[in-house]
Amino acid sequence: MLAAGLVLLSLSSTPVIASIVPVADSPPRFDIAASCRDVGKSGINVGRPASACQADEEKARDSLTARWGEFKPAARTNCVEGASFGGPPSYVEVLTCLEMKKP
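Given the sequence above, the corresponding structure tokens read:
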């Protein structure tokens, strides 16, 4: 009986929890070295050194910092969270995601 009550309580509170979306108020802080660490180590070498990756990440970080307010809060949160899937997060990935979501 107690277990059934806990299940009902958890089900009834799920929509409230799911509707709370954290808003990223400022650009994220990523470790650029970690994001670019494995560049050039794959079996397929496309001739792109880690230094080029780091330059791209720094440029994307600067652009995000300057343009952060242009993007909707929900898009910022979604893109920052999505950038962490599958490996170290990337400023380039966040910026690309935000630009794609912009009307």
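Residues 24-101 form one domain. Try to locate this feature in the token string yourself.
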